[in-house]
Amino acid sequence: MSLMDEINNLQSVVDNELSKVFTNKTGNYQEKIFEAMKYSLFTGGKRIRPILLLKSCEMVKGSYEEAIPFALALEMIHTYSLIHDDLPSMDNDDFRRGKPTNHKVFGEAIAILSGDGLLNLSYEIMVESIINKSKDKNDYNRYLLAFKEISNASGVEGMIGGQVVDILSDGKIIDSSELKYMYKCKTAALIRAAVVSGGIIGGANNEEIKKLKTYGECVGLGYQIRDDILDMDEDRKISKTTYLSFNPPGKAKEKVESLSKEAKESVKSFKNNKFLDEISYYLINRNK
């Protein structure tokens, strides 16, 4: 199976499982908020983070079924962050993936609550999995550590912290160390959490988890720098500091290639590393 075939297959798995979460959620007082949550969840997301989580688990254990609730939770967290990013008080975007943003369809108040709803539902799903699927103390510990990894990456020391730096730096010149911190938190944190939590659920040891952290950070940073390059190539108006504020395009492309190689090197000791090896190159070198 080619990389794209496998990605498409896993996207279908994630979509089907997400749909199940919203079964029988109509005809009650919360119908509108569930409608708004579903709207943003199913606007054509690539499902990269849950896919990385599932394949990381599979690479370690040989299967990924027990990691599905955590993969769904991660996608919900990612989607909630996009809903809030698009709000008038944040990036004030009218479209996301070619469709009107949540607040344009449902109004700002419902959009805020739909983001809140997705974040909270993500924790409900993970906690339910920990309670109901832990067969012994070992399962309980693995699931709890995966929960902690995802929670930390989503919080003020992770994605939210990166977003704060992004907001406060709007219209200002920041130094390269602050930019790197923002990238590591805002973009790389959830990608790192995906592969690390997947590995934890799969039973990875401490040394393997360390390698997965390196992989996740390399892919996350490379993904963001590649975004900067694509923005420049499309001649978009950039008002914020980016990697290209400190480095010429050629140097930026060299950095992306270096991160791609480091990501590949970090997982070479895993037996079933083909997917993570190939998708790291695909994500960091994509054309859109």
TrEMBL record:
It holds the Pfam family polyprenyl_synt. One of its GO terms (cellular component) is cytoplasm. InterPro entries: Isoprenoid_synthase_dom_sf, Polyprenyl_synt, Polyprenyl_synt_CS, Prenyl_diphosphate_synthase. Its cofactor is Mg(2+). GO terms for molecular function: (2E,6E)-farnesyl diphosphate synthase activity; metal ion binding. Its EC number is 2.5.1.10. It catalyses: isopentenyl diphosphate + (2E)-geranyl diphosphate = (2E,6E)-farnesyl diphosphate + diphosphate. GO terms for biological process: terpenoid biosynthetic process. SUPFAM superfamilies: Terpenoid synthases (SSF48576). It is an enzyme of class 2 (transferase). Keywords: Isoprene biosynthesis, Magnesium, Metal-binding, Transferase. Belongs to the FPP/GGPP synthase family. NCBIfam families: FPPsyn. This is Farnesyl diphosphate synthase. The lineage of its organism: Bacteria, Bacillati, Bacillota, Tissierellia, Tissierellales.
